[in-house]
Amino acid sequence: MRAMRTTACEGLVLTVALLLAGCGGGAQVGEQRVCSAETFKPNYVPQLERLLYWERFPVTVYFERDANYSEYYRTLALQGFDQWVEATGSVVRYRLVDSPDGAQIKVSFKPDMRNGLTTYTFYPSNGRMVNAKIEIGVQGNNPIDIRSISAHEFGHAIGIGGHSTNPDDMMYPNFVSDTPLKITQSDLNTVKTAYCNYFIGRSRVAPPPTEETPIEMTIECPASP
Ligand SMILES: [Zn+2]
After folding, report:
1. Burial environment of residue 147 by CB neighbours within 10 A (0 to 12, 13 to 18, 19 or more)
2. How far is the centre of ligand 1, averaged over its atoms, from the C-alpha of 50 (Å)?
3. Counting C-beta atoms within 10 Å of the first and last residue's C-beta, which end of the chain has fewer, N or C?
4. What is the distance in A from the centroid of ligand 1 to the CA of 157?
5. Number of domains, the chain
6. What pLDDT digit, counting tens, does each position of 118-131 carry?
């Protein structure tokens, strides 16, 4: 078992593929949230680059059927995703689909990586996501690590746009090999802040129509040494 950690994350790799052009129609006002970073504490919302959200659950998840796909990897990935479903009392949930058409989250496995990568597009004014892509490194074939990477990347894919600086948190950028990652209270509270309406018994207020162009962001998660 490797017990070393790499140094803290160098930061997010931001790939702004499409910068929104100046909107002629006036600024869109972001969704009115009914709670703030002070509502569910402790959390690490202030440390994040962004906190994003899906308009509704379940989100649709599609596993790419390429040469690296296997039922075994899919099972491990879903066990990782399910940690969030369980921790949020199924507020966060997904539905598997058999076609990439219209799938909101696409998942693939990468045998040449032992870390993970999540890319998503979202509306910058209100943080509403359009789609996300998760790449899960399976190099080393360690089921515990594959499950942990999957859980961590799913955390990004449901809205955590950045990392925690606390090594105990699921969303710390590095992990210790062979040690299952767990969702901490801070991880959970960070997601609850993104979906605060659901957790205080109110349905989400529909976001205003937006004509802006979604932007793309990639979060690269350093590997275990
Ligand atoms: Zn990460």
Report:
1. buried
2. 13
3. N
4. 10
5. 1
6. 999 999 988 999 99
